[in-house]
Amino acid sequence: MKLSARLARGLVWALALVPLVFFLAGLGAHDFSSISSVLNMFGRLTGVLGLALLLLAAALSARVPGFDQPFGGLTKLWHSHHLLGAGALLLLMAHPILLALSSAAFGYHLPLKVLFPPLDDIATWSGWLALILMMIFLAPSFSFFGPPNYERWKRIHALAGPAVILALVHTFLFSRTMPANLDVLIWGLFALLGVGAVAWRLVFSRAGRPKYTISAVEAVANNVVELTLEPKRPEKRLQYQAGNFVYMTPLDKQLSAGCGEEHPYTLSSSPTEPHLRIAIKDLGDASRAIQSVRLGTEARIEGPYGRFFPVNGDPKQSELWVAGGIGITPFLARLRHLKALDQAADVHLIYAVQDEARALYADELQALTEAIEGTKLTFHYFYREGPISAEFLLQTCPDLDQREIYICGPLPLNKLVQDHLRALGRPRSSIHTEEFELL
Ligand SMILES: Cc1cc2nc3c(=O)[nH]c(=O)nc-3n(C[C@H](O)[C@H](O)[C@H](O)COP(=O)(O)OP(=O)(O)OC[C@H]3O[C@@H](n4cnc5c(N)ncnc54)[C@H](O)[C@@H]3O)c2cc1C
Predict the structure, then answer these.
(1) In testing the pocket of ligand 1, which one of 326, 436, 439 has its CB within 8 Å of the most ligand atoms?
(2) pLDDT digit string, tens, across residues 312-342
(3) Measured distance CA(108)–CA(104) in Å, rounded
(4) At 266, phi and psi to the nearest 5?
(5) Which CATH topology does 211-305 take?
(6) Of all atoms in ligand 1, which is nearest to the CA of residue 278?
(7) How would CATH label the architecture of 319-434?
């Protein structure tokens, strides 16, 4: 992981500790002589830290183009968002249990009041409702009921909004996490971050998304098309780096699925082209429907996101690229860009596919690597050679210990290649991956 990404993630976690520090400072004369008082302190502490993690997770969900850069790209930023959310859920589940246990020494009626508050106890009920909503909207993320349907997952995840607001109501009504009025100040600032980010994402970001028109649909294989999109207002066209991805929202009501849905796709075009190109493999209902999208369909584009390739990388650095299936798109964009700039690059591309028929863009990749000085292409066919082995990597690219390595493909391939590289002694910091899965 790059230093800036470590720093950005570290900063987020450090921020989560701010309310905790004030909470601990306010404990001052807390009596720790009994188990009850220790449990009470931990009960309140889990509440404070859990709320901080929840609000920071909300803040990271904003998806502001460019904001993902210091984190190493949006997929890495989502990873921090997931960890914060999971941490918040665990801590907030422990919170009422610890508080109930802490009052058990004073008879059974107090714990019962925490666990089953009277109907008019809004302060406690708002906390319970927040927790119940969290359990509902986070359960699919943990795949408790099998791999979730993405659109349903997204609708359920929208419960995060009311959960955050109820958690804040709970905290403000109790108002006893920090000394004096620091409660209001600290949680107010955190709420501004979390709620502001969600409001930006749901309301304000929409206005800035440029509109494009689909002007060509080319079949690349029987289940892959490449769309060409022309900007409706050329002066507003998207500026991006090769290898970036966007969220595309097609607006054709006649599509059998996916109209109005935003899906992430890597741009396969060179940033020097006046239009965008996106290659889409049929992997589910929306990506299947788009295979027969009508020319002239409008699409909203949001982005760019991602930092697969370094922004101002050293042009002399030699690289090994490993692509699998539709994971060829960021590499195709880079090659198209190098060709457009007439630039040389010391790059070896290994393209892993099932068989010849599934080698997308085979002719164009061949032509590009022949035309661009320093680039080499090797196909790996699963039906002939089985899974990629460490020996294959070494034979194909004997100097891989000198190269920065970029992998984009299905998760099993991604993992297998990483395992081989690690076993061959390549440090984690020299391996860069792009995942096409965000959940
Ligand atoms: C960074 C990134 C770059 C990608 N680039 C490409 C590309 O260049 N070409 C290509 O064909 N595919 C690409 N994908 C995959 C593409 O986004 C999914 O195939 C598509 O969204 C599937 O939607 P569906 O409704 O057809 O299928 P579904 O059956 O709804 O989804 C299949 C899987 O795709 C993922 N997915 C679905 N919708 C979304 C969404 N809105 N956001 C995030 N993940 C989602 C989920 O993991 C889900 O399990 C990329 C994905 C990511 C995250």
Answers:
(1) 436
(2) 778 889 999 999 999 999 999 999 999 999 9
(3) 6
(4) -75, 140
(5) Elongation Factor Tu (Ef-tu); domain 3 (2.40.30)
(6) 8
(7) 3-Layer(aba) Sandwich (3.40)
